[in-house]
Amino acid sequence: MNSNIQNAAGPIPIPVDHRSTARPAGPRGKLGPASVGRSLRGISPEIAKVGLSEICLSYRTQSGERLLALDHINLEVKPGEFLCVVGPSGCGKSTLLHLIAGLHQQSSGRVLVDGKPVEGPGTDRILIFQELGLFPWLTVGQNVEFGMKMKGVSKAGREEKTRYYLRLVHLSQFKDSYIHQLSGGMRQRVALARALATEPDVLLMDEPFAALDAQTRDLLHDELERIWAETGRTIIFVTHNVREAIRLGDRVVLLTFRPGRVKREFPIDLPRPRVLEDVHVAHAARAILDELREEINRSLEVEYSVGVKPHVVPGAES
Amino acid sequence: MKRAARLVIFYSCLFGLWALLAQLKIWPPYLFPTPWGVAQELYYGFSDHSYWIAIAVSMRRVLIGYAISVVAGMILGLGVASNKFLEETMGGLLVSLQSLPSICWWPLALLWFGLNQNAILFVVIMGSLLSVTLAMEDGRKQMPKIYGMAGRNLGARGFQLFWHVLLPASLPFIVSGLKQGWAFAWRSLITAEMLYVSLGLGQVLMMGRETSNMNAVIAVMILIIALGYIVDGLIFKSMERHLQHKWGLTPAT
Asked: Which chain A residues contact residue B155 at CB under 8 A?
């Protein structure tokens, strides 16, 4: 199955038919901005895999003022969709994932998964934290099997799956290593394997590849896309890297800087597998970058609060 | 090797000085015993099994008392750390109680439990419980929050979360508190045993005093020190090494 995608020389659309998001390979590079704040296809939160309806989140800062982090977020994620969320740092995109994971509580609005409101964490939604949160007292293998152990999967079953997922992220030889013995990139892959091993319906990823070198990242993009295509999982992927979002996403949602609002949604109709350096990816990135740049400049203004507008080129890191 | 040599030199000097002072006979031998007298006493004590029995009795008491302290202290510490009300009320009380030497509980323990094992156990528990509680509270607070979140995220709930995540995650932060708790438990035990015919090491020590057998007094003191040191070395040192092997030098995320 692997070879199907990896060896493809040209743009072959991924072979999925069971997923509603599968579209014929459209004209290349076509990119249409959608209406602001509303879901692109307008499906209701009740039938979506993940539905966010009028989500607001505010909290008190230490100085006592109320800060609105998320402002009336409406978002519907279809079953099997690969949704990427981009935005400047401080736009609340990580917080959004925590809400879906059930680790935080929104101030108002509803988070629905399969039409049911989220009440706390559940193994149908696994979040890969930005800080990873790997357990240093466990070996790599034990980290990967942790979720299965909590679920009560038998020892034999756990071992088999642990082996499988470690091979998937190319860490088979490090099964018995401890976390502190691994490089940053290897830790990221352990976190990915640990999340996948729980076999969640929805995978929530918070900038998981930000700290990786380019080769590893490309490799993991391929692997992630393959796993996604094979399993039909819904993925919500937060990143600050616009090209990465276009490389992976069926749809890219751009959030505004503080308070976080859905500024715009971009359907990505490029055929898969996509290549990060591809000219069509770059072209698609430009439109999103233009809008993102505004937000980043706004965020810098607030952070430096000197009124000088520093000129930044986001996405240059890709 | 070098370290061993240094230790050998240090201790031979120490014993040499002791032997020399004893040999000079400045003080009578019932005030200042000789090393060979003490060694002989140790030999007799072990060969007629009285020291073995005393050690067994004392170790059993301290292990039971310490085990209860650790379990209760961890529950109490977690409770105090995760509940704002408890933290504000109990937190201060616990700190102030820690300044109370545990033997101060002896009169109360006598009234409550009578002159028996349980009174001694109570003093041992009161001696080490607070150290463990405060260490656990502190450890729970120092422990990065991400572990708890990651655990819940992966489906750990309630006791599972405590046993598989919160406890191991806080261990590096509470191991020194556990060690301190052990030291307090050991001291409290010996003190309590000295106050009562109890078969333990403390009583053997007092018997030495009552029979003016300074050799026995010093011998038992050496035993008490040695046992404390051995437990520290065997249990806590290996625990620390074990933690360091797993976590690396600094806790990583």
From this structure: 121-123, 147, 150-151, 198
Tell me whether residue B169 is in a domain. yes
Q: What pLDDT score was predicted for residue B250?
A: 53
Determine the distance in angstroms separating the CA of B4 from the nearest CA of chain A, rounded to an integer: 31
Please indicate if any CB of chain B lies within 8 Å of the CB of A165.
no
pLDDT, position B12: 92
Domain of B229: which CATH number?
Answer: 1.10.3720.10
List of residues 6+ apart from B103 with CB closer than 8 A: B123, B188, B191, B192, B195
Q: For the domain A11-19+29-37+79-107+117-124+200-305, what is the CATH code? A: 3.40.50.300
Which of A135, A147, A151 is nearest residue B147 as measured by Cβ atoms?
Answer: A135
The tens digit of pLDDT for each residue in A277-297 reads 788 878 878 888 887 787 777
**What's the domain count of chain B?**
1
Would you say residue B216 has pLDDT above 60? yes
Largest CA distance in chain A: 61
Please, are residues B54 and B200 in contact by the beta-carbon 8 Å criterion?
yes
B247: nearest CB among A136, A149, A194: A136
Question: Would you say residue B221 has pLDDT above 50?
Answer: yes
> From the CA of A235, how many Å to the nearest CA of chain B?
16
pLDDT digits (tens, 9 = 90+) for B174-205: 888 888 899 899 999 988 888 877 788 888 88
Residue B131 lies in a domain: yes
Q: Which of B146, B160, B252 sits opposite A150 (nearest CB)?
A: B160
Kindly determine whether residue B253 and residue A101, on different chains, have CB atoms separated by under 8 Å: no
pTM summary value: 0.71
Domain assignment present for B96: yes
Instruction: Please report the ipTM that was assigned to this predicted complex.
Output: 0.72
- How many contacts, defined by CB atoms under 8 Å, are there between A and B? 78
According to DSSP H, which parts of B30-49 are helical?
A: 35-47
Per the CB < 8 A criterion, the answer to whether A34 and A40 are in contact is yes
Interface probe for B, chosen from A105, A119, A135 (most Cβ of B below 10 Å), is A135
Domain range spanning residue B183?
Answer: 34-247
Closest-CA residue to A83 (of A240, A204, A217, A252): A252
Residue B16 lies in a domain: no
Range(s) of chain A covered by CATH 3.40.50.300: 11-19+29-37+79-107+117-124+200-305
